[in-house]
Amino acid sequence: GEDVEQSLFLSVREGDSSVINCTYTDSSSTYLYWYKQEPGAGLQLLTYIFSNMDMKQDQRLTVLLNKKDKHLSLRIADTQTGDSAIYFCAENKGAGGSYIPTFGRGTSLIVHP
Amino acid sequence: NAGVTQTPKFQVLKTGQSMTLQCAQDMNHNSMYWYRQDPGMGLRLIYYSASEGTTDKGEVPNGYNVSRLNKREFSLRLESAAPSQTSVYFCASSVQGRYGYTFGSGTRLTVV
pLDDT averaged over chain A? Predict the structure, then answer.
């Protein structure tokens, strides 16, 4: 199976909340990340959470981490059309004193007016 | 602007041609990475360099070589391009994997 799994699509109405879910495999990951990719652009770091935290809030973004189930979620409050993008979950995997990020396949968020 | 710079932004190659993708970062990061992104496949790691002077294979290294020229620069070389290497290539850097990864804007490569 894949190291990091995410659903491929999510469709919401403008103003609603969006919740994007992710499961990962490496329990030793120290950092978990959410990235956003707009069409034709590179990946932009949205937020990250340390493995010793359960929740992190940053303006409209809330990240929840369940280490027992290796489950990570990203909630976007009051979703706007400008939030339409692909969202990638990533975990850090230890590799000989450094870390390698492993990404999911990305969730395409479509926001309808 | 500080960040990761990739050149070129677009490239079309014929099968069998060679080329080098350039990547440079000015954030004094130790680690650098090359990914390819294909539709429906997410990002797959080609090679990475944990620190200056070291390089290691990632998930899909076949057909590629890399050089960590100095702390700032990490290049990716295709010796004999194949249509299967048509993709978008991203370079990224980090402080040894902590505090997130900074990505370049990508190189869109087409091999015909």
Answer: 91
